[in-house]
Amino acid sequence: MSDNCISGTKTSSSRSSVDEGSTSSPLALAILLLGGFITVFDLFVVNVAIPSMQADLGANFAEIGFVIAGYELAFGVLLIAGGRLGDIHGRRRLFVLGMLGFAVASFLCGIAPDATSLIAARLLQGATGAILFPQVYALLRVMYDEAGRRRAFGLLGMTLGLAAIAGQVLGGLIVESDLFGLGWRVIFLINLPIGVLAAIFARTIPESKASDVAGVDWPGVSLATVGLLLLLLPLLEGPNSGWPAWTWGSFLASGLLLVGFLAWERRATHPAVDLGLFANRGFSAGAVVVLLIYSTSTSLFLCFALLLQTGLGLSPFEAGMLFAPASVGFVVASLIAPKLVARWGNGVIAGGALIYALGIGWLILTASELAGREDVLVMLPALILFGFGQGLSMTPLLNLVIGFVEERHAGMAAGIISTLQQVGGAFGVSIAGIFFVSILAGHSSGTEPEASRYVAAFAGAMFYNLAAAAVAALLIAWIARKRLAQ
Questions:
Q1: Which of 17, 280, 302, 407 is most buried, taking the most CB atoms under 10 A from its CB?
Q2: Range picked from 85-89, 143-147, 191-195, 279-283 for highest mean pLDDT
Q3: Could you read off the pLDDT of 55-92 as tens digits, one per residue?
């Protein structure tokens, strides 16, 4: 799983005002935790449902890849804007709008008649999640004193960890149960009543705003969003369609838009991204690490789900249960990582990334030996090691990277890193997908067992993940030394 405890987007110098007549209540905390839960749950639940969606909608890999990557991309590029909108117009108000928008987008996902409609709805779901999610962090900051904040954020971290596990186990059970004959659609439709009820009870949350926050840089956000979409689309579709001329035109247009984005950000009065932060070599290297290490997570979930369900014939619930130990390993490592870093230093994070890479390598080896569904339990030790290494590296990584910037820029830096988490996940799906699709097509002989085809495709695609995690471990070691020297 991936660490989705992303930080808010306002700078530490902003002053917040809270409604005097409002008091924080247990119900208000519960509603905010629910908002965090459903955004992460919907990121992970799709993994176990993807094979069912693919079969039901007749979707190819590019389309199902976009169902996942589109959500992450829209979520990521709009996070900073979502945080600023809450600061300007009221965080409770934006929380309610985001929750209702997320519920409606989920409903559209649940009734999607084809893959194109589902992709569009997932993009909308990611965009509304980007409005909803930053308000959770911002409101928890302003609702409590220091002691209460530590408790609230501890509960949030636990909630997000449980959401990842529930997304796989409970999500698999929901898909397999085929409630009302709706199959995978229930995982989205269930969000509609939850979202409406949460919006109604959100009145218990005190309203707050920031008095001196900058406006939203809509031109910059638009340039980045369209530019990244035009980059992601050919990466996903190219392997299926043989890289026709339009894919290269899309790459060219993407490059022009992203160059335009950088030029605009340099001259914007209130830029979406402060490019000056990248003058710090430690922060720049850390941003590359975040892109690399988060690109390995979602892609592994997707390819693993296809291996288990389409290749080996496991049910959604069985697939979710098999991966659950990795999530447990992640949660355990996340809990102990801060203590280990405090005692042994940031080298622990590099060690965690190395363990993560070893877990991926072990997973490749064990998967390569699979002959059928009866052998899948042999992957459990590798999955646990993989999850433990992921939690040990990802959880304290963000604090290490943000620590390179001045405190007054911490909010902007956190927003940038949070965006890179999601963008990295989106592009990891496309990059690993190039290998997965190509290898699967190369093993298309009618005499070859389906299990062998998917085993080969999974193992081949995961070599990118192995390389990315290994490079990340080396970069983290360099960053840790640089941080120690400061």
A1: 302
A2: 191-195
A3: 889 888 888 888 888 898 899 888 888 888 888 888 89
CA distance 91 to 205: 9
Amino acid at site 170: L
CA distances from 223 to 207, 227, 230 (A): 32, 6, 11
- Tokens 């962090």 belong to 137
C-beta separation of 186 from 110 below 8 A: yes
Please state, as a whole number, how many other Cβ atoms lie within 10 Å of the Cβ of residue 442. 12
91 vs 14: CA distance, rounded Å: 14
Residue type, 469: A
HSE, CB side, 13 Å, CA atoms: give it for residue 147. Answer: 0
Backbone torsion region of residue 214, taken as left when φ is above 0, otherwise alpha when ψ lies between -120 and 50, otherwise beta = beta
Q: How far apart are the first and last CA of the chain?
A: 32
- Identify which of 61, 49, 205 has the alpha carbon closest to the alpha carbon of residue 136: 205
Position 7 pLDDT exceeds 90 = no
Q: Other C-beta atoms within 10 Å of 446: how many?
A: 4
At residue 88, what is the residue type? I
What pLDDT is stored for residue 406 in this prediction? 76
Classify the C-alpha dihedral 71-76-80-81 as positive or negative.
negative
Shortest CA distance to 68 belongs to which of 426, 427, 465, 431?
426
**For 7-36, what is the mean pLDDT?**
62
Give 217-276 as a DSSP string: -HHHHHHHHHHHHHHHHHHHHHHHHT--HHHHHHHHHHHHHHHHHHHHHHH-SS-SS-GG
Residues 6 or more apart in contact with residue 253 via CB below 8 angstroms = 230
Structure confidence by residue, pLDDT tens digits, 242-273: 889 999 999 999 999 999 999 998 888 888 88
Q: What's the residue count for the chain? A: 486
Spatial separation of the C-alpha atoms in residues 66 and 429, rounded to whole Å: 8
- Transcribe 101-139 into DSSP letters: HHHHHHHHHHT-SSHHHHHHHHHHHHHHHHHHHHHHHHH
Q: ∠359-364-370 over CA atoms, to 5°?
A: 125
Closest C-alpha among 472, 453, 432, 470 to residue 69: 432
Distance CA 245, CA 310 (A): 31
- d(CA 59, CA 115) in angstroms, rounded, equals 6
Is pLDDT of 11 > 80?
no
114: left (phi over 0), alpha (psi -120 to 50) or beta: beta
Q: Report whether 300 contacts 462 (CB < 8 A).
A: yes
